Amino acid sequence: MRRVAEDRRTVGEVGEDELLAMVFPILAVARESDDVTVGPGDDAAVLRLGAGGLVATTDAVVHGRDWRDDWSTGMDVGAKVAAQNLADVAAMGARPVALLVTLVMAASTEVAWVLDLARGLATGACPVVGGDLSSAPEGVLTVSVTALGALDGRTPVLRSGARVGDVVAVAGTLGRSGAGLVLLETGRPEADPELVAVHRRPTPPIALGPVASSAGATSMVDLSDGLLRDASRVAAASGVCLDLAWVALAADAARLDAAVGTEEARDCVLGGGEEHSLLATFPSGSAVPEGFRVIGEVRAGSGVALDGIPQQPRGWDHFAG
Amino acid sequence: MRRVAEDRRTVGEVGEDELLAMVFPILAVARESDDVTVGPGDDAAVLRLGAGGLVATTDAVVHGRDWRDDWSTGMDVGAKVAAQNLADVAAMGARPVALLVTLVMAASTEVAWVLDLARGLATGACPVVGGDLSSAPEGVLTVSVTALGALDGRTPVLRSGARVGDVVAVAGTLGRSGAGLVLLETGRPEADPELVAVHRRPTPPIALGPVASSAGATSMVDLSDGLLRDASRVAAASGVCLDLAWVALAADAARLDAAVGTEEARDCVLGGGEEHSLLATFPSGSAVPEGFRVIGEVRAGSGVALDGIPQQPRGWDHFAG
Hints:
Two copies of one chain form a homodimer.
Chain A: H1 11-14, H2 16-31, E1 36-38, E2 45-47, E3 54-62, H3 74-90, E4 95-105, H4 111-122, E5 128-135, E6 141-150, E7 167-171, H5 176-185, H6 193-200, H7 208-214, E8 219-222, H8 227-238, E9 241-244, H9 250-260, H10 262-271, E10 278-282, E11 292-299, E12 303-306, E13 309-311
Parallel strand pairs in A: 4-5, 9-12
Antiparallel strand pairs in A: 1-2, 3-6, 4-6, 7-10, 7-11, 8-10, 9-11, 12-13
Helix pairs in contact in A: 2-4, 3-4, 5-6, 5-9, 5-10, 9-10
């Protein structure tokens, strides 16, 4: 188990006030911001935003479902839940301005884990302006994050704006988180530590969200549940077909070959989740901004295709047995 | 058990997509708003706010800690978690504009309970613009809410602004939620159903938050943890003493006498939690706005006093054994 060996006391032993006194300094560096007028400690945080609109999103992770303690430290969990929320903000073309964090945990939770979580949240470089600590029965540990972003006058980039003739482009890696998970599941994390690191702490290209928006992106989404599945959501919302070209994805798969084999590598690139890279469409003829690469085009039709052949993305239901 | 007898299927049997298809119409009425440009369904919601600043707060409730199924329906839980978040927004002098809701639950959770929860959230009359459903191990059920509010150009009302000579005023009831809890704990809910109703679904005077701000409130807080305890927080943040007058509170206690007895009634008024009424200070000489009544004054010193006698509010720690 990878764990900071600093404070083996439990949250119940330390108490809420002392715990917060330890957590706040960790988050303090990230709290300084022109956008934040009042940080944690009052009834609510206060943000100063220009009249350019605000985006808001929320996403939670649950111990035993979304992470395992033998695979992920508290810092990994904090960094990942921050990244997945910030990627949602970026995918609207917005600039992240604040996080709110709710931690629901049993009194037996180790203080060291909580401090480690705070360090992970701070890696998001987005101020944590509020939160809530709630006690829960033994065995419960969930982290809920809300992320707020400023549009700074830009028009939000929705899933529904892809138009026939647009190019499809991606910013960030593909399949690495999924391949890292395969390595963990098969007990071979040492086979490619970089892939495992992406699974533990994805580093999506947050800053490219506003860049894509300014460059005229017609639609955008972050890749939470896999390239084909998230592309199919854009296709459905826009009433078009996203046709991807394998030639543009082959290098992504080749990167994973040695670690997981050719077939699994392809599956990871097309279906691997939790990468949080940005998938966007741009009008044909416009320059795709630096950091994005073209991987397909938008055609009339529906769904998602690969080299013209319709694909059926695997389903995913949180509550399926 | 008070439960809507409409759909005994579980969340696991129905699946995420069908569940959302059932929940959205319940929230739809509340979703229409001038402030909301894009509601649920994209990577993030989009809000249109004037350049008057934004407040943000978050608060979670946990099954088995914050509510019991034999005392509270899903609708009660939804209404209460909305109310407590909206009260935090109001206590900053802001107007609630949006909620985000994260529901972490086991697959065995009944669909009927979730729909009931949504109905309760909708009673807050504040649009639910985003959320997250996460699966959890058996026995886990938590609801996290983030509330966003618009200041509409008003200055946020902090806890730290109370000044010597100000009057202390309250809007809303006192002690009723606490007395309702006593009735539930002693198995006598029928002794005063109105008190029990306040405990199940507090109805704080949300609209009076902005009113207080416009009237010049120097500090404000919502009563989450009891009058003395929350008043002591204002006192600490402002560096003053809040001296309350029992004569102004006696009628609140008298209302509870018949249900819980004189001594308990006093304890409920001074220490009962979850009422979410608004406690504010106003400059002496200014008119206290309609809906507020004066219950004390701000003196030099520290802490909270009753008729000049210092009071020691009971502590509360989420993680104490």
